[in-house]
């Protein structure tokens, strides 16, 4: 039995290496300015990125470079016209809409209830939040409304790459805003829901939807023709990158157009965002005054209407980043040096450090790895250890318990594959976990002829745990494949 178990472990582990997690790596493809592409590769390193589209603004001139590829079934080199999910860089754009409308008489101190009189806010503090507070994250509104359904979606996002917002529209977003309670006002506490509420309030005031307001007041004047807010039934931009997480798991696009003011369902390109940054630096963009620091954001940071300003040594950088399921973006500029940057990537690895290095600033030292992905990587794949021990040592073992524990171990092996921290833990560790499970199953099968169906009298409860495991495995496979 020991020999068969050891052989099974070796065979399964060797086969598992072929399907082990494969964190993305920056490919060799290069487009645009060769010198800039070299700088980008030096700033990025090789791990954690699949493709990066970059714009660098110096002395009023814009250079572009693309390194790596789009991913997907038909990967293509990325360039300045490759479309990415923009994410939260839309927040300072919403702040610019506020600043632009303020120049025409809209007071930033207007309570949001005045622009959304039909929304039945449950908390007077939320209803009384001002437009300026919403744009600077000082309204005390939580970043999201957490519900049981939302909690479930968050885990479908982590384990299967599903859209956690499920194409939430404006009505759904307003319902969430109406239901939440505000915390402490006046202190900066980042809120996606607050920024989305601001976008919808400004759209209501203009008598249009958010996309129309954004396009007429900001995108069209700047010639940002490739920036779009996608509706749930609209196709993705023709030249889009494919998003994936840090493990290489494909991530579903986020279709939450109701959160467009905060970055939901917004796609753009490095070329378009460079136009935005260049115009804000020059002060010629509509609402460019939104980038002026107005409020203390803590830890040496200040914030205007959506734009953060942070000092890095001798550099003072005005910036915002963005992150969705499979994309990370960064836009920033240093007025003193006249340098600006846009970095867009199609993985879950942050690109802020790349942008700061291109601006000549030294990124702050990063914290340690997140605990949850480490647990998923170091614990989940080794659930078969319990079965392996029982197969050799337990005097009482039955076929139902063997099947049940094997099914649960397979499920957790799959969960560890998709959500483990394989950018930190070597992926071969996952193959070792598969080998342990293979050894456990082989040892249990070797004892099968002498095992009873169940060590206890068979009732409907006997089959409950294996049936639950089968249902969860089927659901996991459905969401993963679908």
Could you please describe the fold and organization of this structure?
The model has no long low-confidence stretch (mean pLDDT 93). By secondary structure, this protein is α+β, with helices and mostly antiparallel strands. The protein is globular. Helix content is 41%, strand content 13%. The protein folds into two domains: 2-22 and 370-481, no CATH class; 84-358, DD-peptidase/beta-lactamase superfamily (Beta-lactamase). It has helices at residues 2-16, 34-44, 90-102, 112-115, 124-127, 131-135, 148-160, 170-179, 192-206, 210-222, 270-282, 352-358, 371-378, 384-393, 399-419, 428-446, 464-481, and strands spanning 30-32, 51-58, 61-68, 84-85, 228-229, 266-268, 295-298, 301-303, 308-312, 315-323, 328-334, 339-345. β7 (295-298) and β8 form a beta hairpin. It contains 17 helices and twelve strands. The strands form two sheets. The chain has a nine-stranded antiparallel beta sheet, sandwiched between helices. The chain has a three-stranded antiparallel beta sheet with strand order 4-6-5. One of its GO terms (molecular function) is hydrolase activity. Residues 36-350 form the Beta-lactamase-related domain. This is Serine hydrolase. Residues 1-22 form the signal peptide. Keywords: Hydrolase, Membrane, Signal, Transmembrane, Transmembrane helix.
| Residue share in helix | 40-55%
String of helices and strands: HEHEEEHHHHHHHHEEHEEEEEEHHHHHH
Number of strands: 12
Rg (C-alpha, Å): 26 Å
Number of helices: 17
Strand order of the largest sheet: 1-3-2-12-11-10-9-8-7
What is the CATH homology-level superfamily of the largest domain?
DD-peptidase/beta-lactamase superfamily
Transmembrane segments: 374-392, 404-422, 428-446, 458-481
Domain Beta-lactamase-related: 36-350
Protein name: Serine hydrolase
InterPro entries: AmpC-like, Beta-lactam-related, Beta-lactam/transpept-like
């Amino acid at each position: 039995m020991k020999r068969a178990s050891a052989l099974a472990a070796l065979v399964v582990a060797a086969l598992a290496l072929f399907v082990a997690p494969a964190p993305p790596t920056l490919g060799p493809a290069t487009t645009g300015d060769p010198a800039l592409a070299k700088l980008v590769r030096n700033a990025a390193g090789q791990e954690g990125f699949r493709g990066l589209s970059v714009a660098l603004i110096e002395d009023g001139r814009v250079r572009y470079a693309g390194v790596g590829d789009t991913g997907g079934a038909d990967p293509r080199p990325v360039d300045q016209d490759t479309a990415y999910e923009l994410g939260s860089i839309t927040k300072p754009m919403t702040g610019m809409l506020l600043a632009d409308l303020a120049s025409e008489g809209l007071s930033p101190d207007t309570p949001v209830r005045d622009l959304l009189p039909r929304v039945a806010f449950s908390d007077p503090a939320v209803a009384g939040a001002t437009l300026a507070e919403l744009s600077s994250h000082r309204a005390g509104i939580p970043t999201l409304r957490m519900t049981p359904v939302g909690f479930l979606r968050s885990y479908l996002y982590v384990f299967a790459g599903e859209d956690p917002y499920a194409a939430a529209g404006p009505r759904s977003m307003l319902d969430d805003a109406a239901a939440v309670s505000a915390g402490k006002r006046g202190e900066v506490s980042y809120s996606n829901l607050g920024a989305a509420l601001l976008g919808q309030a400004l759209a209501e005031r203009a008598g249009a939807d958010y996309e129309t307001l954004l396009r007429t007041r900001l995108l069209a004047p700047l010639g940002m023709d490739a920036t779009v807010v996608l509706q749930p039934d609209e196709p993705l931009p023709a030249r889009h990158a494919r998003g994936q997480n840090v493990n290489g798991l494909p991530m579903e696009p986020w279709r939450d157009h109701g959160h467009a003011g905060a970055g939901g369902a917004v796609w753009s390109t490095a070329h378009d965002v460079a136009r935005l940054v260049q115009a804000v630096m020059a002060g010629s963009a509509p609402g460019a005054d939104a980038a002026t620091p107005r409020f203390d954001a803590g830890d040496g940071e200040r914030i205007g209407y959506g734009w953060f300003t942070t000092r890095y040594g001798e550099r003072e950088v005005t910036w915002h980043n963005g992150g969705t399921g499979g994309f990370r973006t960064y836009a920033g500029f240093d007025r003193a040096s006249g340098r600006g940057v846009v970095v867009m990537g199609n993985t879950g690895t942050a690109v802020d450090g790349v942008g700061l290095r291109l601006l000549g600033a030294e990124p702050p030292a990063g914290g340690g790895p997140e605990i949850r992905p480490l647990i998923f990587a170091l614990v989940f794949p080794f659930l078969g250890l319990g079965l392996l021990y029982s197969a050799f040592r337990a005097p009482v073992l039955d076929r139902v318990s063997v099947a049940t524990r094997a099914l649960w171990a397979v499920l957790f092996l799959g969960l560890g594959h998709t959500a483990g921290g394989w950018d930190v833990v070597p992926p071969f560790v996952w193959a070792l976990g598969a080998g342990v499970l293979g050894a456990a199953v082989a040892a249990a099968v070797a004892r099968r002829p002498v095992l009873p169906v169940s060590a206890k009298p068979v009732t409907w409860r006997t089959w409950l745990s294996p049936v639950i495991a089968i249902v969860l495995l089927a659901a996991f496979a459905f969401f993963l494949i679908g």
